[in-house]
Amino acid sequence: MSRDPLVEVENLEKHYPITEGLLKKQVGTVRAVDGVSFDIGRGETVGLVGESGCGKSTAATSMLRLEEPTGGTVRFDGEDITEYDDAALKRFRRRAQMIFQDPSSSFDPRMSIGESVAEPLRIHGLNDRTRRRAVVEDLLERVGLSASDADRYPHEFSGGQKQRVAVARALSVNPDFILADEPVSALDVSIQADVLSLLDDVQSEFGLSFLLISHDMGVVRQVCDRVNVMYLGEIVESGPTEEVFGNPQHPYTKALLSSIPRPDPRKRGRGIELTGDVPDPSNPPDGCRFHTRCPAVIPPEGLAVAQETWRSLLDLRSRAARGDLDPGALADAADEPSPTPALVREAFDLPDPLPDGEAEATLAAALETAADGDVAAAGERLVEAFPTPCARQAPERRRVSPDHEATCHLHDPDLAPDHGDAYGIGVAEND
Length: 431
Ligand code: ADP
Ligand code: MG
Known about the structure:
Layout: E1 5-20, E2 25-41, E3 45-49, H1 56-63, E4 71-76, E5 79-80, H2 86-95, E6 96-99, H3 113-123, H4 129-142, H5 159-171, E7 177-181, H6 189-206, E8 209-214, H7 217-223, E9 226-231, E10 234-240, H8 241-246, H9 251-258, H10 307-322, H11 327-333, H12 341-347, H13 357-371, H14 375-385, H15 389-392, E11 397-401, E12 404-407
Parallel strand pairs: 3-8, 3-9, 6-7, 7-8
Antiparallel strand pairs: 1-2, 1-4, 4-5, 9-10, 10-12, 11-12
Helix pairs in contact: 3-4, 3-5, 4-5, 5-6, 10-14, 12-13, 13-14
The chain binds adenosine-5'-diphosphate and magnesium ion.
Magnesium ion binds next to α1.
């Protein structure tokens, strides 16, 4: 597929040091953005979507060099902006505009709307007041407001109207690229669609390249030509919007999709529910970062239990291995005098006994060890008895179709020949 990219992000990385004490000794690293690559064609609208905390905003500010990336390159119109000096950066900033989530804090309450919209023009050297005013009035009308709104103040506008003003301000310097970070998340659901269709309209009218960041799959579906799905600092799936929505090829994408409310609940497919919190980016899980929450995580060869049970076993395995399991607390909560294997089993929703005899023997022994107070030994035992390639090695990014890629072991024929079938993953395209 021949796209002519305006923006090319390659292996973008933003790590924040975690420091401690007066001497600011570095004790860790937050891997907020950890090797992200994608591009945006001219006149194309691309989405970046993922749960809160996965690194979307950090990717945004780093790719515009509002903060310095710690690695990778960003090419804009063929030039590496990570090499830019201040003057070049100022010219770049005119061509690349940003729209933020919170329309209320985007405007100085003492400045009229007209002054706010004209500010980028002034900064970039348009000194003629009359001309500035003409540009502002024209822009306000283009975003669905009226020319006379220029003399009003931010408090007189609703959130949706303020976001329209933000669009006008971004357009004022005639940019090539607009990056909107959660532009409708702070707005009432009833007006989100209006603001999105405004963004869609100005994008095509001005021929802009557009990056839309959102935690909401429904929002990106409405306007994006292509989508990148982000999880814990990495992109796990990317492709044309229809393909990613019609034939998602990463269990995380599937989970995000099943959380979109559907008008008709009877048409809701077998949704994959996402449980647990996003892990801490200062200590990402080994292997595939999603394996600690993935409903489709690959089981050990020959393990004869239901997938949900395997998921629960792996939860127990991870918690015990991290030392994050407290059988004593479970006993207290249940008002029992002392910890028991049964309480731990119950807490993890594990059937008694497991249908697989060998697995049951291992589990019973590990639960006994944990209840006796040696959680670390129980963890080691479980890790050894219940291996998964998902925790052992990081998956590669693989092509599903010419322009659709996913990073999941279910696509590796050597690791999981048939396991993905139940999820419609790793199989030939269905429609
Ligand atoms: P998103 O926009 O997807 O919600 P963010 O990019 O805001 O995610 O944050 C990604 C991760 O980076 C989070 O864990 C956040 O706590 C961390 N983070 C963001 N900014 C900083 C910072 N200045 N210092 C340390 N950690 C940060
Ligand atoms: Mg954000």
